[in-house]
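User: Second chain of the day. Same drill as before.
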Amino acid sequence: MKEASSSTASDPRQPSTARPYKQAYKLCSWLAIIFCAQSLVNMKNMENDLKQISMAMIVALNLIRSGSRDGNGSVVHH
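Assistant: Same format as last time:
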């Protein structure tokens, strides 16, 4: 029984030992910013397009900002 408890303590499938993978969010956020810049260049209807682009930019910047923080809210230094 002692072996079973020690193997579950280091099992990465357990929620207590698993860490979220954030690198994909960071990559997607940077891609979103690039696409927003491209959309700014190709705008046809200034009012509607600018609203959509600004919202997409805000979401992308928030994802980048939250990707540089750990689960406790402190900034992670790489």
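The radius of gyration is 20 Å.

User: Great, on to the next one.
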